[in-house]
Amino acid sequence: SFNEYTRLCKYFKKKLKDDEKFQEYSNLIIEQVDRVNIVINQMLSYTRIKGDNFSKVDIHSEANKCLDILHFYSNYEKIVFEQYYEKNLPLVNGNAVEIQQVLINLLVNSMQSIDKEGTIKISSKSDILTNKIIICIEDNGSGISKKDMKFIFEPFFTTKVEGTGLGLPIIKGIIDKHHGKISIKSEINKGTICEIELPIN
């Protein structure tokens, strides 16, 4: 497997630490294998969204887990995260792992859109009339052009140099499976607002 190749490269990299030529090539191999592994995992996620495995999910708990993970992201220290959570937000029926995947992808997109310093706001509220909860992720990053907005949920469409164009299609697939909706509003140099609706029952 790709993970095994990476482990072997790291093992020999440590063993042959004095061999400059090997060190140079091993770094390239590890980097490329990791990149291929990410692409393959994203393609698998897109073509085979996991089975139901639904249970009652606490959105606030899952969002906080995602923020803990993002501590390791390169520009985390340059970003202010603001949380505006509704008290006693109802639980939703869903797959906790997939909901985490949605939130992490959206948060990483927001982080990548911020070049220097910025703010990401995460908010939640319930709408009893429609029996839904609404999760909103808002950033003041670089935004998305009107030209690109119409294609953002198309598989393999990306504006990122190293992107696969599968992140948002995967997110939409997961939200659709949860009988929810996702909407994105954006403006160049002003930021992006992602809004997710999920049914309470």
Please characterize this protein's 3D structure:
The protein is α+β, with helices and mostly antiparallel strands and 201 residues long. It contains six helices and seven strands. The protein has helices at residues 2-15, 20-47, 59-69, 96-112, 146-149, 167-177; strands at residues 55-57, 79-84, 92-94, 118-127, 132-139, 181-187, 191-199. The longest helix is centred in the N-terminal third of the chain and has 28 residues, at 20-47. The relative contact order is 0.14. Residues 1-6 and 43-49 have low confidence and may be disordered.
What's the gist of this structure?
This protein has 201 residues and is of the alpha+beta class. It has 6 helices and 7 strands; from the N terminus they run ααβαββαββααββ.
